[in-house]
Amino acid sequence: VPNHAKLDVLGRILDVEEPGSAIVFCRTKRDVDELVQGLQGRGYSAEPIHGDIPQMQRERTLKRFPDKLTEVLVATDVASRGLDIPDVSHVINYDLPDDPDSYVHRIGRTGRAGKEGDAITLVSPRDLRNLRFIERMIGKRIKQVRVPTLADVEARRRQVFKESIIKALNSDGLDPCLMLVDELAEEYDPAEIA
Predict the structure, then answer these.
(1) Residue partners of 149: CB distance under 8 A and separation at least 6
(2) Which end of the chain is more exposed for a tag (fewer CB within 10 A), N or C?
(3) pLDDT tens digits along 114-159
(4) For 92-116, what is each residue's pLDDT tens digit?
(5) In sequence order, what E strands does the chain have?
(6) Opening angle at CA 150, ends 144 and 152, nearest 5
């Protein structure tokens, strides 16, 4: 992914994957702050975790994460070490770390205690050599996947909307709505009402 397209690609990944809880790793504190601003500007609930965040704010952020009040933590490697964050569904390497140990530490944040999780790494063309080095050092080939398209995002949104309608149809409390639909059906096409 070219550097200039990473924010767009990250948004598509978040929309298609719909992580329950994700940690996105950046190289620097400045990168973390800029990415949090970009994500918040796009409507994502994102909070920063790095060394310049006051301890009180960090604790508040870490409490909000498991409570699902914050969807995405954006962190540096230094700030993430020593933090016990349970139930991380996705780790996304927005920036590839410089060394294999950091890579292993990052992706180890997901899939803990026998649970499953996904690790996704955005690699710019100039980072390919570093990626190959990390692969050699960890003894694994990292699978390359296609970036989600806008059509993928739209299909996922339709699926989520359909699931929410099915859930509503299967729940109690639709009687007032159904009465309203019956009244409106006398003047309007039921498909338009739907």
Answers:
(1) 12
(2) C
(3) 778 899 999 999 999 999 999 999 899 999 999 999 999 999 999 9
(4) 999 998 888 888 888 888 877 677 8
(5) 22-25, 46-49, 72-75, 90-93, 118-121
(6) 65
